[in-house]
């Protein structure tokens, strides 16, 4: 059994400026997006993307992730708290970013990018889908460093069960690391492999929706559920699991449509 190594959330300070590990993880995520994006452009030149377009995509994506992620946390998970403490909405360095909110924010940002640059929406989402999971992995590492979003109680005999002393004395699943490996690295490997060759329009986006939805749904069984607006729906599911259900269903419908379009 392991003990959570309490980590200072501040990576380093320069005068009055403190740089938090959580913010650095987002920076790493954006760097990975650019690096993998340039690699993807080289291996699939027929997609017609350029390095400059990739940089522009990142700019739109950063805004979508930050605004959507924070609003998702506020509206989906802790509306009561943030409505009572509105200034805390701006304290993104403390953590508290909803994937599903960030996902919706990115979709809006990509739609706006497409409108301005004459790119089809699905053309954009198919291109960026393989570039996203490594950033998700970095975000989960940030959650682990912050000591937040800890897992459910685990069997003490589990070698990697971890006690989070700031929570209680129970051995728990280090679910942040599970998610980094599953929704991050495993999903990246799947999408990077799938996108290596031409696929029907929407198909790569569909794989992302289904893959993330299924993996996140599973990972939630190891993570202490967050209170949220959908928890009251019951069924023993968390808010995140309820949010994953439409992702999976939409992904399945998109894949069927993509395959049918190809057949015709």
Automatic annotation (TrEMBL):
Provide the E.C. number(s) assigned to this enzyme. 2.5.1.145
| GO molecular-function term, one example from the UniProt record | phosphatidylglycerol-prolipoprotein diacylglyceryl transferase activity
Arranged from A to Z, the UniProt key words for this protein are: Cell membrane, Lipoprotein, Membrane, Transferase, Transmembrane, Transmembrane helix
Show the GO cellular component annotation of the record. Answer: plasma membrane
TM stretches of this protein: 20-37, 57-77, 97-114, 121-141, 177-194, 201-219, 239-258
Q: Give the primary localization class.
A: membrane
Q: Which residues bind a 1,2-diacyl-sn-glycero-3-phospho-(1'-sn-glycerol)?
A: 140
Which pathway does the record list? Protein modification; lipoprotein biosynthesis (diacylglyceryl transfer)
**How does the protein's chain sit in the membrane according to the entry?**
Multi-pass membrane protein
What's the domain of life for this entry?
Bacteria
> InterPro entries per the record?
Lgt
Query: What is an annotated GO biological process for this record, any one?
Result: lipoprotein biosynthetic process
Where is this gene product found? Cell membrane
PANTHER family attached here? Answer: PHOSPHATIDYLGLYCEROL--PROLIPOPROTEIN DIACYLGLYCERYL TRANSFERASE (PTHR30589:SF0), PROLIPOPROTEIN DIACYLGLYCERYL TRANSFERASE (PTHR30589)
Cited function: Catalyzes the transfer of the diacylglyceryl group from phosphatidylglycerol to the sulfhydryl group of the N-terminal cysteine of a prolipoprotein, the first step in the formation of mature lipoproteins.
For this chain, the family text in UniProt reads: Belongs to the Lgt family.
Q: What is this protein called?
A: Phosphatidylglycerol--prolipoprotein diacylglyceryl transferase
Q: Which organism is it from?
A: Denitromonas halophila
């Amino acid at each position: 059994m392991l003990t959570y190594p309490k980590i200072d959330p501040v990576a380093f300070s320069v005068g009055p400026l403190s740089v938090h590990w959580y913010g650095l993880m987002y920076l790493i995520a954006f760097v990975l997006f650019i690096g993998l994006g340039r690699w993807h452009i080289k291996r699939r030149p027929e997609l017609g993307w350029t390095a400059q377009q990739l940089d522009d995509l990142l700019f739109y994506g950063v805004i979508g992730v930050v605004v959507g992620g924070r609003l998702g946390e506020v509206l989906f998970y802790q509306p009561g708290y943030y409505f009572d403490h509105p200034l805390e909405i701006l304290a993104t360095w403390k953590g508290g970013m909803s994937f599903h909110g960030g996902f919706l924010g990115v979709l809006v940002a990509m739609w706006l990018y497409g409108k301005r640059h004459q790119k089809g929406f699905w053309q954009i989402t198919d291109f960026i889908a393989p570039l996203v999971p490594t950033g998700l992995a970095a975000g989960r590492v940030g959650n682990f460093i912050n000591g937040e979003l800890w897992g459910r109680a685990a069997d003490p005999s589990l070698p990697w069960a971890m006690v989070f002393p700031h929570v209680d004395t129970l051995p728990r699943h280090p679910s942040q690391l599970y998610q980094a490996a599953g929704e991050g690295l495993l999903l990246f490997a799947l999408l990077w492999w799938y996108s290596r060759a031409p696929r029907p329009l929407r198909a790569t986006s569909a794989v992302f929706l289904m893959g993330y939805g299924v993996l996140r749904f599973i990972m939630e069984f190891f993570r202490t559920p967050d209170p949220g607006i959908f928890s009251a729906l019951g069924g023993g599911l968390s808010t995140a699991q309820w949010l994953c259900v439409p992702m999976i269903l939409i992904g399945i419908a998109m894949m069927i449509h993509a395959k049918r379009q190809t057949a015709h």
